[in-house]
Design brief:
Blueprint lengths: L1 H27 L3 H21 L10 H20 L4 H20 L3 E2 L5 E2 L4
Antiparallel strand pairs: 1-2
Helix pairs in contact: 1-2, 1-3, 1-4, 3-4
């Protein structure tokens, strides 16, 4: 079950990065400038995600905060896309943000940096 939740979270995170690209490129305008803005936004978001939210993050934030932050970011991008004529994808991302919160909370609290030792907070 955890493998399925992990895969689902990964797919949602990938869709989130696509949404970040669409949102940034639409806000920056059409053409090369919009594409570069989209790629730049994805790079910045991916670096922040890898620093604070990813399973192997060096500065991983606590579980509940991480779940709320991850799901919140996905939902904010989805809401932004609603106003930019990407309403279907925006709605999908909003729903996916809710699913991501639940998936993050349900995933075990092992730390892959120390061989998968379970951290229970005690």
């Amino acid at each position: 079950m955890l493998v399925v939740l992990g895969l689902l979270a990964f797919v949602i995170e990938f869709a989130f990065m696509v949404g970040v690209f669409l949102l940034a490129s639409a806000l920056a305008g059409a053409g090369l400038g919009g594409s570069l803005a989209g790629v730049g936004a994805v790079v910045v978001v991916a670096l922040l995600w890898g620093l604070f939210i990813a399973p192997r993050a060096r500065r991983r934030i606590p579980k509940v905060s991480r779940a709320l932050a991850a799901g919140g970011m996905v939902m904010v991008v989805g809401a932004g896309l609603l106003g930019l004529e990407h309403s279907r994808f925006g709605l999908v991302l909003i729903g996916a943000g809710l699913v991501l919160v639940l998936a993050q909370l349900a995933l075990d609290d092992t730390d892959p940096r120390d061989g998968g030792t379970r951290h229970t907070g005690r």
